[in-house]
Amino acid sequence: MNGQEESTIAAVSSGSGAAAVAVIRVSGPRAGEAVRALAGRLPPPRRASLARLVDPRSGEGLDSALVLWFPGPASATGEDMAEFQVHGGRAVVAAVLAALFALPGVRPAERGEFSRRAFLNGRMSLAEAEGLADLIAAETAQQRRQALAHAFGHLADRVEGWRAALVRGMALIEAGIDFAEEDDVPAEARALARPGLEALLAELDTALADRRGAMVRDGATIAIAGRPNAGKSSLMNALAARDVAIVSDEPGTTRDVLEVALDLDGHKAILIDTAGLREAAGAVEAEGIRRARARIEAADLVLWVHDGSDSEALAIEVTPPPEAGLWLVVNKSDLAGGPMTMPAAARTFAVSARTGDGLDGLTAALAGFVTARAGGAEHPALIRERQRGAVAEAAGHLRQGLAGWEMLSDELIAEELRLAARALGRVTGAIDVEDLLDVVFREFCIGK
Ligand SMILES: Nc1nc2c(c(=O)[nH]1)N(C=O)[C@@H](CNc1ccc(C(=O)N[C@@H](CCC(=O)O)C(=O)O)cc1)CN2
Ligand SMILES: Nc1nc2c(ncn2[C@@H]2O[C@H](COP(=O)(O)OP(=O)(O)OP(=O)(O)O)[C@@H](O)[C@H]2O)c(=O)[nH]1
Ligand SMILES: [Mg+2]
């Protein structure tokens, strides 16, 4: 055990700001002593007990609180843990924390330190810890579902299955190595290993190709593009039902890229308003247009907004990436213009950002788009770049081994499989953990 595990940590886990109740959690070898010092006794394990809390330094009463005692190792962190559920006023929380930190061996928890200890004590894998972080950050139902699956082992279980398949392959090939003296055995053992490894590589490639996980977590991006004054900012405000962007009849009003998060049927989307595209009048507008183009080129869906009252011919002046959607939104339907010839390729919507006409249909279509892109019966395996990188590395080694099947020795093939298994081990934190801990737990809040 290193020095860190021996310290006892405490923090408020229920968020900052005044609330009816605040939860203060304590974890480590001194957690039991801390309860005795403040509550006067150790209540029965895992039962809420009402106790008067006092500051052991002065004997001053601090609160009447619910106290819970979770003896290790059957606790969330695997250590002795305690909880004080106190009245949520800032001064109450501050006084209880101050009394705790005055006890020998008790110090403030660092960001994510409870979860880090849970990981180090084998209570959860790194992939599950990442799921928990996402669960706490989840804003939409779909994000919650995906994060919950990961917090309870979805990716960890899949990685374990992949590792087991590699180990089976290695065992067969190593059996061949052991029997190398006897003529046919190696070739036969290898032949047995191959189909399983090929199936595994196909599975890894499928998981790597599936980008829904990141899309659910970060939200699909929907960029609003068009000529100046088409009503892009008005559309953004109408769809967001908030006054996010400045609207004016001056062409070239919007320069900065503006973003607003939408919840479309439980799916997160990020709506992006951009500068109108034209020959810029000055350096600032030119920079705005450059930024607009960069975001349009990276969007999952582009809405080309056209001013339907404009006599100018309709032309879509952007080329989003091939996998992105491109829809045409003809705005200002309240200013009846003449009949228009629509470009055949795009889905077209007639709306008025001013009166709200047609916006329900557009919103429903956007929800359909996001659901189709991010939804699906089964949760995706990979969400984060960290996970993707490790699995890509594993797939690379496996591919290498399979490609060299006829040329490489048993030892070299087994080595590629070992490297692949090692890379997978980094997903769950079974392997090479030290350098990963800070990356994973840094994003947690204090008290988690
Ligand atoms: N008040 C409170 N609510 C909370 C938490 C908390 O710590 N405190 N949690 C904080 O994350 C979550 C619940 N997570 C928990 C996970 C494990 C254990 C636990 O004691 N596990 C033991 C015993 C399980 C059992 O009784 O079946 C174990 O796994 O061995 C407790 C909470 C959400 N709600
Ligand atoms: N009648 C009518 N006017 C609209 C509608 N939508 C926007 N407008 C008006 O059109 C003008 C331009 O609107 P904006 O939303 O600022 O247009 P924009 O495309 O963001 O313009 P830039 O930021 O300059 O590129 C404003 O005067 C709006 O009030 C609409 O549906 N009907
Ligand atoms: Mg604008």
Write the layout of secondary structure elements.
Blueprint: H1 3-6, E1 8-12, E2 21-27, H2 31-39, E3 49-54, E4 61-70, E5 81-87, H3 90-101, E6 106-108, H4 113-120, H5 126-137, H6 141-151, H7 154-178, H8 185-209, H9 212-218, E7 220-226, H10 232-240, E8 258-264, E9 267-273, H11 283-297, E10 301-307, E11 325-331, E12 347-350, H12 359-374, H13 385-403, H14 410-428, H15 434-441
Parallel strand pairs: 1-6, 7-9, 7-10, 10-11, 11-12
Antiparallel strand pairs: 1-2, 2-5, 3-4, 4-5, 8-9
The structure holds the ligand Nc1nc2c(c(=O)[nH]1)N(C=O)[C@@H](CNc1ccc(C(=O)N[C@@H](CCC(=O)O)C(=O)O)cc1)CN2, guanosine-5'-triphosphate and magnesium ion.
The site of magnesium ion (MG) has 5 residues, from α10.
Walk me through the structure.
With 448 residues, the protein is of the alpha/beta class. The chain folds into three domains: 3-117, Gyrase A, domain 2; 130-210 and 381-429, Up-down Bundle (Four Helix Bundle (Hemerythrin (Met), subunit A)); 218-374, Rossmann fold (3-Layer(aba) Sandwich), CATH 3.40.50.300. It contains 15 helices and twelve strands. A six-stranded mixed sheet has the order 3-4-5-2-1-6. Strands 8-9-7-10-11-12 form a six-stranded mixed sheet, sandwiched between helices. The two termini are 22 Å apart. Guanosine-5'-triphosphate binds at residues 226, 228-234, 247-249, 251-254, 275-276, 331-332, 334-335, 352-354. It comes from Ancylobacter defluvii. GTP binds at residues 229-234, 248-254, 273-276, 352-354. Its cofactor is K(+).
What's a concise summary of this model?
The chain is α/β, with parallel strands linked by helices and 448 residues long.
